[in-house]
Amino acid sequence: MVQFFDGIPDHLAKWALTQPVFFTASAPLTGSHVNVSPKGLPSSTFTIFTPNSAAYIDATGSGSETVSHVYENGRVTIMFCSFDASPRILRFFCWGRIVEYDDRKRFLELLGRMGKEEIEGARAVVELRVWKVQTSCGYGVPYLSACPVPDADEVEGIRAELKDRETMGHWASKRIERNELRKYQAGNNAYSLDGLPALRAALRDAGKSVLWGRISARGRRVIGQKETLGMGVVMGILMVFLWQMVVVRFN
Taking the model in full, what pTM does it have? Predict the structure, then answer.
């Protein structure tokens, strides 16, 4: 159900640009907020240059979370999903770079490469270096259906309505009937893409220690704060040096 690629295959590039909306996800290194923003339309704001490079036009909005997060740490994920009869979720895991509208030369050059006109209110172009691509089933995403409105004339008697797909329940029930659901969870839901422990029941079914998973996750979080650790070491050395100077001076 899940597939990974080192770049964007041609068929997925074409599919992405036909979707009605895409989403960006980003987060700061510290703080409580994880941001998700809807964007669109991909056909008019998003360009895929190569299997590993893309860009989108960022319009002025009520916040600027993605821009600030990309400036701070560069991480951003792009997600497309299908709302029609054929389900699919597509993610681009990226490193981003911001080119703001007032950097006119680079901004206009990028728009030219994208083959796009400058959009009124555009504040930046977000360049994307795509390092991993993931597709998954999309069974849990509703599909858009045209439904008749009772007691309405033929012209105005249709409305768009989101409906649940039967595929998710059908897929899960088949797994349960064959007594395979917990095995699937153990193989797919025990760890995140970065190797962090996830569903504890899945860890136990996979024969892994939940306690060790929690300890290793905490250790990774501490080690991951390289700048903080480095600053702590520098400050420690500086304090020892200053203390020695004080001792020598008063002795």
Answer: 0.79
